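Ticket #4471: complex job returned nothing on first submit. Input attached below:
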Amino acid sequence: MGSIKDTEIIIEALLFASGDPVPLEKIAEIIGHDKKTTKVIMANLQYKYQNTPRGILLREINNAYQLCTKPELDEYVQQLGTIRRKQGLTPQAYETLAIVAYNQPVTRAYIEQIRGVNSDGVLMKLVERNLVEEVGRDDTPGKPKLYATTEEFLRVFGFSSLKELPPLAMNEIPEVYENVPMD
Amino acid sequence: MGSIKDTEIIIEALLFASGDPVPLEKIAEIIGHDKKTTKVIMANLQYKYQNTPRGILLREINNAYQLCTKPELDEYVQQLGTIRRKQGLTPQAYETLAIVAYNQPVTRAYIEQIRGVNSDGVLMKLVERNLVEEVGRDDTPGKPKLYATTEEFLRVFGFSSLKELPPLAMNEIPEVYENVPMD
Amino acid sequence: MKSALTDACTLKLENFEGPFDLLFYLIEKNQIDIYDIPILEITEQYLDYLSAMQELDLDIASEFLVMAATLLHIKSRMLLPKREPLVEEEMVDPREELIIKLLEYKKYKECSKMLADREKKWSGAHFKLPEVIPDIVAQEELEVSPETLRMCMMSALRKYRDKMDDVSKKMKRILNQEKVSLRSKVKEILGFLKNGVRLCFSKLYNHKEKSRLEVATGFLAALEVVRTGQASIHQHVDFGEIYLTPNEKNKNDKNPVSLIEDE
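Support reply: We reran it on our side without changes. The output follows.
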C-alpha cells in the first residue's frame, strides 16, 4: 500500500467498520507502518477531519482512535430518534377547513349555512390546531368574527400559497357556488 | 442551516450515527427540505463519496441511505478481526434467487418449472436467510404463496433498487417468455 | 455403455441440481450449439450419467427420469422417416420445446453467476453498528392531502345544493297552496261584491282573527279584483280603512276567477 492518501482511506474504513476505538498498534499493524509514523498519520488525519466540512470527527482516546459525529450536530442526530405520530383530520374538520380555505375570510354563520350544522366546536378545534385563525370582524350587524387559514395550514398541505389550492370543478356545480350567500 | 455544505455535514452525521439505512423522508424532514431536493442532494453526496479519497461510500437501498466501507478495502477491514463473514450461497440458491428476482412475485411452481427440479428446500433456505420472503398468495386455484426478494437481498448484492437488476438476455428468445405460464 | 465418463464424473454427479443442469453440463462439455442439439449423442450421454448414478446407489430424483423419457421421445421422433409436411401443417422440430426450456433456464443460470460476483464484492462492504439514540415521540404530525380538501369542499357544496333544492321545492309547495287560497279569496270577495255592497277590508281580513298569510292573501285577492276591473279600491287616509266598491258592469259576472291561472 503506497501513498498517504491510500493509507488514510484504509484508516477511515477501519475506524468506520469498527465503531469502537481502534488501538494505535492495531492501525499500525494493518497499514504496515511503525507506531511513530502511524501516530503522525493519525494526527494529520485528525486535522483534516476537523478542517474539512465533515459531519464526523476523529477522536483519540488513550492511544486509540474512534470516529464520532461532531457534537454540535447532536440536535440533528437526536431527531433520528423522533417518532412522528401521524394523525389525520376528522371528516367534519376537513369539511370545515375546506370551506374556510376556499372562501376565506368567512364567518362562522357562513360555514354553518353551507354545512347545515353547528360548527362552533369543529372551528375551535381548527383554531386550536393552528390551521385556522381569526383575522378580524365582518362589517355586518353583530360584527361576527372572520376566520382564515394559517401559515401552518399551508405547511401541512404543502402549499406555497393559497393559489395552490386545487381548483374546484366549477362546471360540475356552478350554480350552487353563486347561490351561496356571501354571508 | 444554510448552505448545501452544511446540509451535507448534517447528513453525514446522521448516516454515521444511524448505522442502519435512513429513509429519504427522514433525512428530508431533518434537513428541512422536500423529498425531491433531498434526493438531488443525496445523489450529489453519493458522487462526492465515490470520487474523493474516502474509505466509506454512500449507498442507496430502496430510497434509504446508508454508509458502508468501500468493498475493495475488505482485506484491511478483515484484519480488525471483529468482522463475521456470512457463508456464501449454493449455486442452487443463486439460481433460484435469480428467478425470484426477475419474476417477482413468483410461486414455487413457477420456479420449479424453470429449474426443472423441486425447489422447496432451496426456497426455504432463502427465506431463512431473509433474501426472499412471502408476499401474499396468488389468485389462482390453490392460492399458492407468492415470493419476492427482500431489502436484505438488495443490500447483499449491492443494488439500490430492483430497477438496477441487469437486464436478462431476452432478445435471444423473445417468444419464450410469453410461453412460460405464470405458475 | 461403460466409458471413461462414468468414472471421471462420478464425483460430480450429486452436484447436478436437476436435469437441465446436467444437460447444460453435457452441452458445454461437448461444445454443442444449443439451437442444434445432436439429440442421439446427448441422450446417450445423459443415460450414461443416470446409470452411473444408479451404480453409485445415488437417489435419482424423478425429474431426471422424466427428462430421460423426454429425450428418448424426442430421439424416436427424430428417427421417424421424414414425410412430406401436409399443407397448412408446419414441420415442428421435436427438439423445440426442450431448446426453449433450456434457453430459459440458461438465462437464470448465467444470472446466478452475476449474483455470486456481486455478493462477493459487496460482502466486503462493512456497516457500522447504530449508535444509541433515544426514541422521542414528537408532536403529532398531520397527515393531510390537498385532494381530500378539494373533495371535502365539493361534497359540502353538493350537500348545500341538495339542501337548497329541497328548500326551493318547499317554497314551490307553499306557493301552490297560496295560489289555491288566492283563488278562493278572490271568489270570496266577489261573492260579497255581488250584492253591490261596499266592502270594508278590515272586516273581511282582520289580522286579529286571521293568520297573517290569510290577510296578505286577502289583500292580494282584493288587488286582483281591482286589476280585473270588477271593483275599485279606496283608502281615504294613510293606514286607514280600505274600501272595495263593486263596478256596475261586472256585478253579475259568473266566472270572475278565470284570470287566475289553473294549475
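Confidence is low (pLDDT under 50) at residues 7-11, 251-263 of chain C. Closing as resolved unless it happens again.
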